[in-house]
């Protein structure tokens, strides 16, 4: 399988990633392998404990999504179930079960194979080596509008996630089913990626604002591999505090296009993103959380973050200029559909 990764991750893909910050590869695995993985994921998602009826609805291996929020809260996105393949507590028994052989073969192949393949085509990202340098998540969105709000993938220290690689396994997906991945390069042109069977979507984890649109298909399967890298400044993976942005506001305003491009290339953009895309964050939170527990806390935290950025006069001026600029960019180019 590693050899297949190396063939599918080619120089053209590296060039697309470097220039746009995201890319996708179709036919990522052999077709039979992808089909087998899909069947195994279905089995894993359908497995039930005879006498357990807790929050997971008796699911044996997958758990309701839990997202860390602030220092203490864990809130879940409705209708999304997932598990981390390192979770020996739930998954260990499946390792020796032939019914799950392909998923585990994939997991083992990502141990080195995935980072090796990408290191060759994007050497400027210092991807780490070894088994602890990647995480793999199995996920199912169970229709009923299941979705993800706008977010970045490495929200805090000590996360070193650098590259997000999502393998979609949905042979019956069709337009209208939703569950599309939306990417919003900072002050750039948005892209929509359909979650087609055997397609790998790739983007830089720390600088790509993204979300998943509501899914109405009964089941939407995805396997995510996060590859870690060494960030030069260990703090850059962590801070979303706008006042720490090292910007000279007057200089930043004098050429807003240049400022936007610089922000787009790094993860300092995350300090401004909520204010620049305030309405989009708000709408996606409402859409994703509905009345679920935590919805209100998340919305209030979003408003508070935007207020705190705007309290600083220089930052408010910069945010306003970036908002005008992004609208200009959006009006001048069609979105990308993949
Ligand atoms: O399901 C997807 O397409 C992406 C999910 C996602 O953004 C995440 O797990 O962080
Ligand atoms: Fe994500």
UniProtKB/TrEMBL annotation:
Cofactor(s) needed for function: L-ascorbate
Oxidoreductase as UniProt keyword: yes
Signal peptide span: none
Annotated Fe2OG dioxygenase domain residues: 130-229
Domain of life of the source: Eukaryota
GO BP annotation list: cellular response to hypoxia
Name of the protein this chain belongs to: Fe2OG dioxygenase domain-containing protein
């Amino acid at each position: 399988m590693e050899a297949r990764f190396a063939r599918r991750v080619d120089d053209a893909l590296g060039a697309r990633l470097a220039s746009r910050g995201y890319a996708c590869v179709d036919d990522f695995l052999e077709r039979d392998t992808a089909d087998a993985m899909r069947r195994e994921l279905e089995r894993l998602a359908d497995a039930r404990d005879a006498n357990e009826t807790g929050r997971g609805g008796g699911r044996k291996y997958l758990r309701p999504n839990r997202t860390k929020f602030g220092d203490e809260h864990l809130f879940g996105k409705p209708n999304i179930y997932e598990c981390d393949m390192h979770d020996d507590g739930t998954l260990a028994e499946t390792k020796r079960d032939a019914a799950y052989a392909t998923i585990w073969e994939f997991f083992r192949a990502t141990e080195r194979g995935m980072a090796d393949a990408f290191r060759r085509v994007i050497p400027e990202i210092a991807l780490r080596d070894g088994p602890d340098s990647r995480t793999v998540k199995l996920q199912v969105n169970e229709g009923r509008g299941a979705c993800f709000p706008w977010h970045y993938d490495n929200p805090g220290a000590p996360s070193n996630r650098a590259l997000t690689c999502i393998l979609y396994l949905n042979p019956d997906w069709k337009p209208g089913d939703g569950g599309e991945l939306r990417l919003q390069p900072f002050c750039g042109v948005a892209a929509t990626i359909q979650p087609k069977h055997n397609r790998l979507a790739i983007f830089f984890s720390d600088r790509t604002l993204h979300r998943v649109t509501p899914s109405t298909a009964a089941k939407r399967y995805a396997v995510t591999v996060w590859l870690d890298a060494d960030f030069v400044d260990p703090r850059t993976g962590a801070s979303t505090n706008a006042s720490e942005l090292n910007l000279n506001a007057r200089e930043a305003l004098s050429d807003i296009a240049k400022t936007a491009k610089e922000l787009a290339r790094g993860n300092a953009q995350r300090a401004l993103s909520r204010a620049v895309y305030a309405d989009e964050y708000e709408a996606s939170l409402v859409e994703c959380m509905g009345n679920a527990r935590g919805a209100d806390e998340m919305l209030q935290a979003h408003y508070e973050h935007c207020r705190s950025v705007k309290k600083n006069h220089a930052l408010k001026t910069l945010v306003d200029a970036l908002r005008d600029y992004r609208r200009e960019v959006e009006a001048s180019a069609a979105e990308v559909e993949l």
